[in-house]
Amino acid sequence: MRYRDRLRYLILTVLLCVYLLTGTLLIACSFTAQLSRETEAAQSEHRMVLYSLLAVGRGAEEARVDLLLGQAAQTLAQDGRGLCLYDAAQETVLYHTGQALPRDEWLLSEPTTARQAVSVCRTAPGRYAVRTGGAFALGERTIYVECIRDISAVYAARSVLLRIFAAALPVVVLVGLAAASLLARGLTRPLTELADAARRLAAGELDSRAPVSDTSELNQLAGDFNKMAEQLQGNIAALQDSVRRQEDFIASFAHELRTPLTSLIGYADLLRSQSLTDETRQTAAQYIFTEGKRLENLSVKLLDLIVLDKQKLARVPCRMARLIADAGGVMHPLLREQNISLVCRPDDTVWPVDPDLVKTLLINLIDNARKAMPEGGLIALKCDRTDDGLRILVRDTGRGIPPEELPRLTEAFYRVDKARARAQGGVGLGLTLCARIAALHGGTISIASTPGQGTTVTVLLGKEDAA
Question: pTM (2 decimals)?
Answer without folding.
Answer: 0.49
